[in-house]
Amino acid sequence: PVTEEQTRQGNHEHIVNLMDFCFKILDTIRQFNSYTFGTNFTMKIGFNYGPVTDGIIGQNKVLYDIWGDTVNLASRMMSTGVVGRIQLPDACVPFLIDTSNFPNGAKSGSRAKGKLSPISVWRGRPPSR
After folding, report:
1. Pick the catalytic residue: 76, 115, 125, 129?
2. Between 11 and which of 6, 22, 36, 103 could a Cys-Cys bridge form, CB atoms 3.0 to 4.6 Å apart?
3. In terms of Cα–Cα distance, which of 97, 117, 101 is closest to 109?
4. 90 phi-psi bin (left φ>0, alpha ψ -120 to 50, beta other)
5. CA-to-CA separations, 23 to 30, 44, 61, 115, in angstroms, rounded
């Protein structure tokens, strides 16, 4: 795992790993739909990175939860997203393009409701591994 200190020092491997995971989820859904008759599962993905607050809530039904602007922005990206696409903060795009794992499939320009952070929609697909 990448620590907060490593991120401050420029290690953004976690962003690359998360994007790879997002593509694998989308590929798994496509494969599942192609092997089953009459199913058409879809998914919208939005992710963000940054500080969060977490904790245990509840007395009778105990739950673990996370809160904060980071979570709220990711949630907005997912809810306003396009099926089969991955939405992420524009700030993540340079870390992904700088790696050889992902083609530059980002289309920038939209904004999540209530936030000023520009959002990119990733359209490209990674090369097969």
Report:
1. 76
2. 6
3. 117
4. alpha
5. 11, 11, 34, 26
Q: Measured between alpha carbons, how far is 71 from 77 in angstroms, rounded to an integer?
A: 10
Q: Is 40 helix (H, G, I), strand (E, B) or coil?
A: coil
113 is catalytic: yes
- Helix (H/G/I), strand (E/B), else coil: 18: helix
Active site (annotated) includes residue 76: yes
Query: Residue written as tokens 């994007």?
Result: 19
- What is the model's pTM? 0.69
Q: Which of 24, 107, 111, 113 is catalytic?
A: 113
pLDDT tens digits along 34-88? 998 888 999 888 888 888 899 999 989 999 999 998 888 888 877 788 888 888 8
